[in-house]
Amino acid sequence: MRQKNMNKRIIDRYDNTEKPHFHCVNNNPVGRHTGDCVVRAMASFLGWTWKQLYADLYAYGIENGMIPNYCSEFHNYLLCQGFGRKKPEKTCTVKEFLEQYAEPDKTYLVEVQGHLTCITGGQINDTWDCSNRKVKLYWERKDTETRKPFYRVEIHPIEE
């Protein structure tokens, strides 16, 4: 119960009418807000569910003997999916990137210090507004592009 109340407070503190560049989105199936930004952002970027991306990314990590939210590991995963990483031409915040570079028919995965977020539909889609953070790297996908998971992983509920 404590987790649900905490999550509600986190969501309540964002008023999207005051921040048209930000939309509070959490695709974590149990509503967690911390520790899974790589999975949340990449799932949104690829248009998959959180569980699909989690299973595929972790299977990829097992094959390579790496923790999948380690930067070089998810960078390589994206490269294998056909997405090359890019650096902004000049230093900019996520909000400046959104305003100056982002195209409306593309979805972006944006890496900032210690966090990964997704920009789609002209908005930052995340559990918190990271618009003031400096962009380190980004990946882009045309909204018409699709990718499939590498692995066929069956997801079963844990029996108690």
Question: Quick recap of the structure?
Answer:
The chain is of the alpha+beta class. The protein is built from five helices and five strands, in the order H-E-H-H-H-H-E-E-E-E.
Q: Secondary structure elements and their pairing?
A:
Elements: H1 2-12, E1 22-24, H2 37-46, H3 50-64, H4 71-80, H5 94-100, E2 106-112, E3 115-120, E4 123-126, E5 135-142
Parallel strand pairs: 1-4
Antiparallel strand pairs: 2-3, 2-5, 3-4
Structure description:
- The chain contains 5 helices and 5 strands, in the order H-E-H-H-H-H-E-E-E-E.
- It has one domain.
- It is globular.
- It starts with a helix and ends in an 18-residue tail after the last strand.
- Helix 2 crosses helix 3.
- About 7% of the residues have low confidence.
- It has a 5-stranded mixed β-sheet, sandwiched between helices.
- The protein is α+β, with helices and mostly antiparallel strands and 160 residues long.
Characteristics of this structure?
5 strands; globular; 18% strand; 160 residues; alpha+beta; 5 helices; 5-stranded mixed beta sheet
Total separate domains: 1
Low-confidence stretches: 5-15
The assigned structural class equals alpha+beta
- Overall body shape: globular
> What value does the Rg take, in angstroms?
16 Å
Biggest sheet overview: 5 strands, mixed
The number of helical elements comes to 5
Order of strands, main sheet, comes to 1-4-3-2-5
Helix content: 25-40%
- What is the number of beta strands? 5
The first-to-last residue Cα distance is 20 Å
User: What sequence of helices (H) and strands (E) makes up the elements?
Assistant: HEHHHHEEEE
Beta strand %: 15-25%
Mean pLDDT across the residues is 85
